[in-house]
Each structure stands twice: as structure tokens, then as C-alpha cells.
């Protein structure tokens, strides 16, 4: 019988050549996050970022639940590492420091509390099983969500919806998450990973540079405003014009066939 590490494990595997599937597994503890898991997740996301052949990531969670949150004594106890949530020089799973430039889809199910919401919001698309239970419950423990919820819940769901849930620290279901823009799809229980993979393959079939520049420009508009994003259009156009994928896109249109992009 395989010996399981008590602090959990994060594994990765390549799916259909261009998709990195990252699985968080400490299911016997409802995937309660430990510093080890944060570090391994950061390494997996950095592999996605730095490997040219990988175009999209899918983050999923073993067992019945996304996560019950942080294993609090490991992060807030007397011996806790104050930097455990921000691994140095790696892609930050919470997207607060070094950020992932490639698309990330997160599949969630069951209990999805605190850091589970913040990890998902640090990505781009959230696919929720219809049994998902969300809660940003930090205020019930005398804490504030410092993993990005106050930023991204507000930008995705709007001020009123964000305050409605963040200040009450209540629990809400997948359909409410969809209503406020947190989840992009609600799917039958057990199909959230497969649906995420389907979407990942759709994205991976597009030109990688065009996809990454689209994400970067949208983020720029969100953070610095429309004028900043518009000002970057010239640089974007020049970068795409210099790519062989643009030529392939044009040629595939002329020949009426699917494009075969190489990411160059």
C-alpha cells in the first residue's frame, strides 16, 4: 500500500500534449492546505509557465471536496513560516506576486472554503460541480482574506455581491456563485474535471501567443484601465505579426482547415 505523506501531495500530468493537469491531494483531511502543498502547487504552476509546449493548466482536487481551507496551526502557529503562502521565485498560486501568464481552469466540488475560493479566483475560469459549497469565512476566525478574495471577488462579482458574502462570511452554493460571476459553469457532480479538460483543449487549439496576449491585455485593462490596454495594442500587433502562427492562421483560413499552431 502506498505511503501517503501526512502533509498532502500535489501531482501533475500532461494531457493531450498541451494541457497540464495539476491535482491537489490530501483528501483524508478534506484537502486542508499545508505549506508543503502550497510549495508543490507553486512548482507545478511554474512548470506550466516555463514549459513552451504547455499551453493551458487545469487545477483539480482529489476526493469529494476542493478544500476545507488552510491547516491553520501550520500557517498561524508559533512555529509557522510567515512566507509559507508566497513561495520565493515561483509562480504564486494566489496570483499576488509572480503571476501565471497562461490560462488556468479550476474545477471545484464539495466544500470550497477560504483558500479554495482564492486559488480559483487567481485562475481564469471556474467550473463548479453542482454540489459545491463556497465560503470565505475568515471573519468568523478573526481573520481577513489576504489571498486575493477582497480584490477578485469584487472585480468579478461587483461591490454589492462581494460585500454581501465577504462581510457575512456565509456559505453559498454553486448556483449563487454562477449568479455573481464567480463560477463560469455549474455542471453535474463528478463531471467538473472532464468539462474543464474540454475547455482546456478548446483553448489549447488556439494560437498560444495570441491567447497569452489576450489574457495579459485583459488583465492590464482591469488593473490600469482601458487607456493602458489600448496603448499596448501596437506592441501586441507587432508581436503577432512577427509570429509564424499568424501566417498559419491566415493559411488555414484560405485552405478552410483547422490551424496547426506551433506557438512560434
UniProtKB/TrEMBL annotation:
It holds the Pfam family ECH_1. InterPro entries: ClpP/crotonase-like_dom_sf (IPR029045), Enoyl-CoA_hydra/iso (IPR001753), Enoyl-CoA_hydra_C (IPR014748). NCBIfam families: PRK06563.1 (NF005126). Belongs to the enoyl-CoA hydratase/isomerase family. This is Unannotated protein. It comes from freshwater metagenome. The lineage of its organism: unclassified sequences, metagenomes, ecological metagenomes.
